[in-house]
Amino acid sequence: MESTARSRARICRGCWDQMHVPIPIRGPLALPFRAFGITRSKMNPNICTICERSFRYVKKQRHISATATILFADIRGFTVLSERMDPVILSEIVSVFQDRCAQAVWAHDGIVNKQMGDGLMAIFNFPIKIKHHADAAVAAALDIQRSCTSALKSLELRVDKPSDDALGVGVGVHTGQVEIGEFSTFRSDFTAIGSAVNLAARLESQAAAGEILVSVEAAAQAPELMAGTQTRAFRLKGIEHPVLAQVLFKS
Amino acid sequence: MESTARSRARICRGCWDQMHVPIPIRGPLALPFRAFGITRSKMNPNICTICERSFRYVKKQRHISATATILFADIRGFTVLSERMDPVILSEIVSVFQDRCAQAVWAHDGIVNKQMGDGLMAIFNFPIKIKHHADAAVAAALDIQRSCTSALKSLELRVDKPSDDALGVGVGVHTGQVEIGEFSTFRSDFTAIGSAVNLAARLESQAAAGEILVSVEAAAQAPELMAGTQTRAFRLKGIEHPVLAQVLFKS
């Protein structure tokens, strides 16, 4: 988590990596930009709203093909929980989860591209370029598990009737070719689509509480973190062949 | 679709319904507001960015409990498609789907709260108040099916190797108590969470191409549109009891 504090960029790292244009996002030089609505992005505080909302300006195309690592995370058994739990506690659980996950993703230069209730999707290697993006995503996944486990445990103590299962998070990670860009005329924030994105989402849906499922493609690029992990074959909805993934448990 | 054109509001309908404050969003009076970054929301062009991003200012709370109708839609078999299809065509399919769905949701005063790849979540009855919100959502679902079917059919003709299954959309609709507000410290756009949201999402996941699954709770409030439809029981992931829903096929 310290690395977030360490790496408070003065210029937008996305605009720099993608266009070699220095856009100030902190300090006095950022003030005139702020007057034009150019501020830090909600996807990652080290990139700016130009990266976030002006994909066509940044890449001169509506979308591009790129290699990236995609991470999905969500709270296991949230549907069951949401039926039994007080909405105020439920809201707090979601907030804590989303905030801890974002910190973990940002600490490794990823962006929180989508948040949907008790889940999120993060992209590593766009717009901030990361040499070892699979490595970064797996490290973020480990941080997510560590920091959510302790935070959720303390929230659980405040629940009147805790369910039999402890609160936990499932994570899926996959590396591959994705399409990045704008896929809607009326929304200008970019996203990633394609089979690699779906595979990461499907892996996440198979991860038990505390588990991180890393596709063999991603694991091969994060050998140190994945050392000694078990490989399992998964049958995933909508994917013809069984998918091999390595299972990482939170420490 | 005409109703979108008909109802180009001059003042933000969300701010009016929630606070009785007139915020100009079209015409010359909107210009000074635009200078302060207050523009039309991407969730619905008849509401403004105050509704979208300043929930705490609008409602004086971080979140509220409200009755609303939630609609989920996505492209059936998209994972299978995305494995076989050219990324450019795939991108076009997603864009067409997202745009047609948004038009349908807006035509009935709903908001497109989340877009995630080939899926979306819409809310009816917040921030624009709708007397018959279940009715509005079912009407939007019918519009989605009508307009996506024709649009996707024409795209399919351009695919080299069409899969056996025709492209189609599945929709789920449920009415209930939800928590609406901000559930993340670093993102200020509001969303809805709670068991009613999950139930709508689970129903959508069970809808076949061309189908709209409407929970009996929502159907009871849209009797005209749901007349003569069949009721089926569904076992949904994470939900203990079987859920009764009525099945509406696209015309």
Structural commentary:
The structure is a homodimer of 251-residue chains. By secondary structure, chain A is an alpha+beta fold. Chain A folds into 2 domains: 2-59, no CATH class; 63-249, Alpha-Beta Plaits (2-Layer Sandwich). In chain A, 40% of the residues lie in helices and 23% in strands. Chain A has helices spanning 2-6, 13-19, 30-35, 49-53, 55-59, 78-84, 87-107, 133-156, 195-206, 216-219, 223-226; strands at 63-75, 111-116, 119-124, 169-181, 191-193, 211-215, 230-234, 243-249. In chain A, strands 1, 2, 3, 4, 5, 6, 7 and 8 form an 8-stranded mixed beta sheet that branches. In chain A, helix 7 packs antiparallel against helix 8 (133-156). The longest helix of chain A has 24 residues, at 133-156. At the A-B interface, helix 6, helix 7, strand 2, strand 4 and helix 9 of A face helix 6, helix 7, strand 2, strand 4 and helix 9 of B.
Short recap of the structure:
The structure is a homodimer of 251-residue chains. The first copy, chain A, has 251 residues and is of the alpha+beta class.
